[in-house]
Predict the 3D structure of the following.
Amino acid sequence: MSSSDHEQLNIYGEYFDSRLLIGSALYPSPQIMQQAIHSSGAEIVTVSLRRQNSVSAGEDFWQLIKETGLKVLPNTAGCHSVKEVITLAQMCREVFKTDWIKLELIGDEYNLQPDPFGLLEATEILLKEGFKVLPYCTDDLVLCQRLADLGCEVLMPWGAPIGTGKGLINAYNLKTIRERLPEHTLIVDAGLGVPSHACTALELGYDAVLLNSAVAGAGDPVKMAKAFSHAVEAGRMGYVAKAMPEKEVAAPSTPTMGMPFWHQN
Amino acid sequence: MNLTYNGEAICVDSEQSLQQIIVSKGAKPPFAVALNGQFVPAGQLPDTKPNSGDSIEVLSPIQGG
């Protein structure tokens, strides 16, 4: 049985019913953030660290997150070097008291594309330090294989650049990664815009999606969170049910046997 | 001596530990500390003394995607 065939989402040996991971940023208000997270049904929420004198960093935000009762996944967003991500991951582990780290190492400022070379280097170091690394990566098969070789049990290729809402811009690549790494937990992270994007990711056999902007930036974030929840459920059910084989030519669904007027004209 | 604290230039007594500097700046938990880009575990803060020109970062939870 492959990873994607399990009934629950497996993240480094912890199991979850929801296949939607949600971010805590960009909401119109802290209250809407809480309501949207609740509405999404997510069991995992992403957070980060910033200077304490920056806007809204600190105890008030942390208290709101704790009130959700969800598992926390800290990220290293904004880091541009291996040294930065290592330090930030270590700081996250102390503050959030978890070995989980969503490893983000940006290689290009224009589209916030992950740096694959630095990502491999940082992943190797952090795994040796006992972290459970969830690398945010591009949809490159060989990169994903190298991350898996290092010991990552979870991989998070992008659907599209962060915050673009473009969906799965290279479904072929994502599908190939799924086929080549059947035992790994695969999560599409970033770039989703509408619920059908999430549904497609799950239909491809991805184990989950991680999103933030698509919900926080919606006209009604609480309702959109619920819509994504349904989409993820539908996509997963469609994957488990196994889709019919695609065909190149039409095949009638209504029986032709007994058709009246058959070839009479 | 002169230091940088979360990007801000500050002047402190050269005998002060990281712990004392952070308390004097009114930092509220939860937070984690880095000195010159290296993580300093909470248990080592009382015994760590920065040098002139060092950079201290005190980070706390914030929203993330």
